[in-house]
């Protein structure tokens, strides 16, 4: 009996969405998966990340929950409205974790040899029945039967499929840093657990990102969210770029927050200018390309769950592509199924 020829899948982007998708797709033996990441090595821009029930569910499905530890958010003022079931995922509760911990847990589950670094996608071309041609900055090329656009907020794949779709700067920037908790110990009455501080032009968020007792000197996250940032040409590249203490500190703060900002060593703050755009009518194109994560729903960090959405997208895409085994269902139809499940979800948001 002649076996099914392998279908090649190119995932562009190695964020939580791309890594989660790689894990899920590598479990389908009829696919040959390659993940192309533009950075020369694993790099996680950002500080902490909130993970709650849905995150645990998808991490469990991916087999990647182990090693994801963080500070409990149970002492933040939050209420859970509905408990449909008392699942294991729920009982673990919400945490705020170092982003690198989530990334390492996912990376550990991606089979070896799947990820190619320093592969920045510059251009892609529809070869109709022959797949998609991908052209990278290092002047190499690849052809794939299926392409997964997991290339984040400023996705080149979204721009290629939906040429009229535009993002706009929201006027919001997030300045983020992780510092040893001990470096804030000298500040009287600084909150030592998760807290929100609301001000005229923005808010400040302080949070544990390490499990109690897990390390000798746990890290603490400070995020300064500014609502009135000026727009400037080239703002799109303000994603994880260094910001000076003067820039972060140039707002009206409670003295305790001023002290916290100035306790951060110069050069540690990173700025993330947030962009948003209209919802896409569909998440697929060219009958063989799917968008996932921030590439598919430019929500600009709203809901604080974008990484979870991205990993869920990858898992559901894998379930849809599973149907294509032995050509039982064409890829185009499988992508329709993916779109029919995820588009209404994002439409509700
Ligand atoms: C201030 C802020 C706070 C947030 N807080 C939370 C939170 O608490 N919880 C949560 O779940 N989410 C949070 N989010 C959202 C979350 O960070 C994103 O939704 C999530 O990272 C999306 O994952 P992704 O894999 O789709 O994209 P990304 O994480 O952006 O990854 C995209 C990857 O693609 C690569 N790439 C980009 N272009 C190319 C190219 N041309 N070629 C090759 N590779 C490329 C990038 O280098 C990157 O590795 C927050 C976002 C912001 C801005």
From TrEMBL:
SUPFAM superfamilies: FAD/NAD(P)-binding domain. One of its GO terms (molecular function) is monooxygenase activity. Residues 7-326 form the FAD-binding domain. Signal peptide: none annotated. Keywords: FAD, Flavoprotein, Monooxygenase, Oxidoreductase. InterPro entries: FAD-bd, FAD-dep_Monooxygenase_BioMet, FAD/NAD-bd_sf. This is FAD-binding domain-containing protein. It comes from Penicillium salamii.
